Amino acid sequence: METEIKSTLEQDGLTVAQLAITHPGALAVFTKYNIDYCCGGQRSLKEACHRIGLDPDKIKAEIEETPLTGSNENFHPESWSSAFLVDYILQNHHSYVRKAIPELEPLLDRVCERHGNDCYELLQIRESFIDLAEELTSHMQKEETILFPAIKQYDDEKQPTEISGNLNVPIQVMEHEHVVAGDLVKKIRSLSNNYTPPDFACPTFRITYQRLQQFDNDLMKHIHLENNILFERFKTKQ
């Protein structure tokens, strides 16, 4: 496995998405350095690193050195059927978003009430998270009522021309909405200094930033599964 990873990493022109799919350990490295492997996944690793001032060779070396846990080593969604992948996204990511939003919003309200006058960024973070929550709620509803049922129907009936040929437009809409959500997440990261609370932060303040970071991490994995794996299967059939 280590030899295979090293061999692949030495290839030129690898995209960030390809690395995210083939090397599960890469996700932790991309998250650590805020390398966009979701909406920006089609960029080469070299381009993605240069955009944010990173050395691509250093990133490759760190991916190679990142140990795989048992769960990461056995996690290969690219080999799953489309229907199974849809169910996984629904059960793990859509359900998480719906549970996390009503937990995070009152936390943000509480922290803004107590620290908003001293830390104006908190008010902007709350506003951005409210926009993100609205965007994701609407987005998931469209996926669940339109796109995902069509994908599962294709998986059942195997009629690429009749079914998958009609998926291009809804996929483009979903990918555009992923960009909108991703931009809001990047804004929250920037405003929160990558979820680093100030020295004076109370326990609730710190917990809020931790929960926002967890939400961010889950959303990036969520979008990665859709953009880089699920949607790509159907775009290539157009």
Structural account:
The protein is mainly α and 238 residues long. The chain has 2 domains: 2-73, SP0561-like, CATH 1.10.3910; 80-235. The chain is 72% helix and 0% strand. It is built from 10 helices and no strands. It has helices at residues 2-9, 16-22, 26-32, 45-51, 56-65, 70-73, 82-115, 120-157, 168-191, 203-235. Helix 3 crosses helix 5 (56-65) and helix 7 runs antiparallel to helix 10 (203-235). It is globular and about 60 Å long. Residues 1-7 have low confidence and may be disordered.
Overall pLDDT metric: 87
**Tally of structural domains:** 2
Which segments are poorly predicted (pLDDT under 50) over 5 or more consecutive residues?
1-7
Oligomeric status: single chain
**Percent range for β-strand residues:** under 5%
Broad shape: globular
What's the N-to-C terminus distance? 34 Å
Largest beta-sheet characterization? none
What is the helix tally?
A: 10
> What is the rounded Rg?
19 Å
Helices and strands: which structural class?
A: mainly alpha
User: How many strands in all?
Assistant: 0
Helix content: over 70%
Tell me the series of helices and strands, N- to C-terminal: HHHHHHHHHH
